Amino acid sequence: MMKELINLSNTDYDLQVLLKGQPNVLKDLLSRHNLDGVEMMFAAPWDGIFPGRQYIQGVHLRFWPSWLDFWQHNSYNLQRIFPNRDALISEFGTDDCRQWLELFRKNLRVAAASGAPYFVFHVTNMRPWELHSRQFASSDREVIKAAADYINAVTEDIPEDRLLLFENLWWSGLTLQNDEAAAYLLQEVHHKHSGFMFDTGHFLCSRPQIRTEQESIDYILHALQSLKKTRKKIYGVHLHCALSGQYALQCMQKKPLKTLRESLSYTLDIDSHEPFTNQAVQKIIRTLEPQFLVHEFIPSDIQELDHKIHIQRQALGWE
């Protein structure tokens, strides 16, 4: 039976502001919408109490959007992205690639300790100056191969019984626009209990010509039919809508971005995480029959989160 979740992190904002530091706020929210739990991102040390293990059904692993040049020791690009050593350490926690890998191992160990049945990992890379134009210097295959090598370096820290799901973005890497590229990723990764987390909002960001929810749903359904080798390997869905194409097209005419801070701001504007309101979204879920469905939003308060969950579940015919 499909598990229905929301996304959550253990940042101070999510736990102390959004949930007001009260476990019952999370419990009541999940109960009100008949949800099974959360997909957790451990961005800080976890005390094992808040949120409790009973709520954690998935873990979104840590992610660094401009990681490839650090992994490949490309000093030229690193100096363009990070103006000094302190900036590099601020992003990766270290200036040593081996120590950075150890930080990721620790993230995996916490994920394993949470008891979550699946982990999610982004397979993508961007450099700030590439975002507006969408002219990415690294090919999808190059990023996929590097990400597979990265994951293979820590395979022993991924319990064999946990499902490892690779998530699509609209940058270079795994886009789920190409069946062969997706199949290649699963071929290269040593952890065989692997598949995909299909992020609908990220997928829509790849098509800035889309203007309406109906167009977005039709686009997704058509694209899924082309994933003949890998569609059955989509075990989870991050469900949210992004109709920011007009803004994205305008940004293509602007000067390139220079910093990661600018990149984050731009990305949040593009990837808006709005709820679907069109009941045709039900066709996506019927097509994929996922094991896990995550209502993925970025709310400013608990009332907004509650409202967005209701709107999207209403479109799905569940409220």
- The domain tally reads 1
Range of helix content: 40-55%
What CATH first level would be assigned?
Alpha Beta
Q: How would you classify the helix and strand content by structural class?
A: alpha/beta
Spatial strand arrangement across the major sheet: 1-2-3-4-6-8-9-10
Q: What is the CATH topology assignment?
A: TIM Barrel
Shape: globular
Radius of gyration: 19 Å
Q: How many H/I helices?
A: 14
Unreliable stretches (pLDDT < 50, length at least 5) are: none
Strand composition percent: 5-15%
H and E order: EHHEEHHHHEEHEEHEHHEHHHEH
CATH architecture verdict = Alpha-Beta Barrel
Can you summarize the main beta sheet?
8 strands, parallel, barrel
The total strand number stands at 10
Average pLDDT metric: 98
The CATH superfamily name is Divalent-metal-dependent TIM barrel enzymes
Distance between the termini: 18 Å
